[in-house]
Amino acid sequence: MTRTAFSGLSSDAITIDAARSGDLGPDDVRISADTLAEQATVAECHENPQLAENFRRAAELVGFTDEELMRLYETLRPRRATAEELRSLAASLTERGAVRNAALVREAAAVYARRGLLR
Asked: Rounded distance, CA 58 to CA 37, Å?
């Protein structure tokens, strides 16, 4: 399998020389969902299912903007969101195909509720 950047550029074309010459853009050095999925498979083969799941969740998020990712991160911090806000976030993630991340948000909401960590 040929690994590619988020832009579709082959990993073979991502070199120090290309970076120095300014031939690479931000999406050329950003990982693709396919590469993350491949890393998940490798992690599973090495009996690391937790790391594999992290790679799969990351693969769901490659199309999100930096701002969206920061909002997601901030919302998931303890005492930053209500139960309803977390339910809404999970629904939004599901609509965008990030079902693993939605499950994580729902799990966080349940834990936060039990531990008194909701806003």
From this structure: 9
In a domain, 102, yes or no: yes
**pTM recorded for the entire structure:** 0.82
Q: Which domain holds residue 75?
A: 64-119
- Helix-then-strand count for the chain, H and E: 6, 0
* Cα-only R_g, the chain: 17
Other beta carbons within 10 angstroms of residue 16's beta carbon come to 8
Residue 115 placed within a domain: yes
b (16+ CB within 10 A) / e for 57-91: bbbbbeebeeeeeeebeebbeeeebeeeebeebbe
Asked whether residue 116 is assigned to any structural domain, the reply reads yes
What are the pLDDT digits (tens) for 27-75? 888 888 999 999 999 999 999 999 999 999 999 999 999 999 999 999 9
